[in-house]
Every structure is written in structure tokens, then in C-alpha cells.
TrEMBL record:
It is found in: Cell envelope. Gene3D superfamilies: M75 peptidase, HXXE motif. This is Iron uptake system protein EfeO. Belongs to the EfeM/EfeO family. Keywords: Signal. The keyword Chloroplast does not apply. Residues 1-21 form the signal peptide. InterPro entries: EfeM/EfeO_iron_uptake (IPR050894), Imelysin-like (IPR018976), Imelysin-like_EfeO/Algp7 (IPR034981), Imelysin_sf (IPR038352), Iron_uptake_EfeM/EfeO (IPR053377). One of its GO terms (cellular component) is cell envelope. Residues 32-264 form the Imelysin-like domain.
Amino acid sequence: MISPFLRSTALGLALAGPALAADPSLDLVGPLSDYKIFVAENTAQLVSDAEAFTAAIKAGDLDKAKALFAPTRTSYERVEPIAELFSDLDVSIDARADDYEKAEQDPGFTGFHRIEYGLWSEGSTQGLEGHADRLLADIRELDSRITALTFPPEVVVGGAAVLMEEVAATKISGEEDRYSRTDLWDFDANFEGAEKIYTLFRPLIADGEADFVAKVDGNFQAVREVLAKYETPEGGFVSYEELTDSDRNILSAKVNTLAEDLATLRGKLGLG
């Protein structure tokens, strides 16, 4: 979940979507269309995964619910800049306990992280059935709203940097998945989402910005290599607790460099 300032800015762009996207450069039409397909595929997968996750919780299967938590979140994390255009759903789906006066005990605390708290800190699915039903309903609503959304090019292109900035600014501390320690799943999904945006728009600047493209390509590869160190043979990632401070500093440095480069992408595409 990004900052209230970024969210309000993005929401304003979303509401103005038809005006902003009414006459985009013809060069942007193809990448924007392809990105909307990417987002739609991820939100459809999110609905499917959330259905299985909810079913495990309602069946009282603690181990299965834990196993499904991180993979279910990945589809949301890949398309977070677009999902967060809908601030009401973003808060309900992805808020952290810190956002509430009574923290984990606050009745307003819902979504993925409320369920995560129950599964790991309380060690039970009991009492989570209502939260699971609400999460699934919110995700289905998100999928419906995104289907009808005109994608603002400024938000789409800027989303690549936003994803990496969020990892570097807040997620690297381990604050998000603090109960399950599945942070690296989120990092990887954010990285994939940023890389998808960059890859789609890269051909538009490849000839005129050869040095920049070579640098960003190299930085994506560097982050990919760092994350690969923590993959498990079964798929997924090790617990974030296994990373040393040095590991986190290296990852933070790589992600920061990538975020700084991607922050200039909008300007290079003439989007301000």
C-alpha cells in the first residue's frame, strides 16, 4: 500500500482517466493495451487464488491457508499501482495494523494483513471467516472496476518507479508481511510488475536512449540475481528472517538504483 499522497494523486488521475487517455500518442496505445491485458490477467488470477484461500480458511485448514497466503498476494502486488487507484478497496484489502488506533485489535483492520495476523500470530483460522469473505468480495469488486477503467498513461508508466520506490522506502524494513515473513514474495511480484511496465514501453525509447536502456536493463538483471539467491527449490522464497542486515542493505541499494532510473521514464516518454 503506497502513501496517501501518491494514492490521492493516482486517484485523481484515474477519475480524469478518459480525458487524460482520450488522445494519447499513437505510440503509447499498443503498450497501454498490452498492460491492461496484463493487469486483467492478474486480477482474474487474484480472484481465483482468493477463492481457494478463502475456502481453506473457512474449512479450518490452517496449514493450507498459510501456504496459500503469499502466492495469493502476488497477483495484487504485480499490479499495485493500478489497484491502488481505488483507495477504498486498497485500504480494505492491504492496510497494515499501524493504520488503526487499536492496531491488530481494531475492528476496522481487515484484509490480507488481518488474516495474516490471525494465521501466524494467533495460529488459527477461527474468527477469520468474515475477514476472508470480505477480502474475496473486495477482490471481486476490484476486478470489476479495473475492467471498466481507462488506464491513465502517466500512472501506468510512473507505476514502474512507484513499485520499486515502495520496496526501497518501506518494504525493505520488513514491515509489511511482519507476521508471516513472506516479504520476498511481495518484493518479487513488485519487481515483476515494474519490469513488465518497463519492457512494454522500452521499445519507444530504445533508439534514442540507448545508454539509459542499457543501464536499466543491467539494473533489472542485478535485482533479479539478488532475488534468485533466496528462491527455494519448491518455488517461492525463504523467510525474510533469513536475510542478514548486509543482505537487506545490498537489496535496498539495488532497488534504489532501479527506482531512481525508472523515475525518469515518464519524462523520456514525454509524459511530464
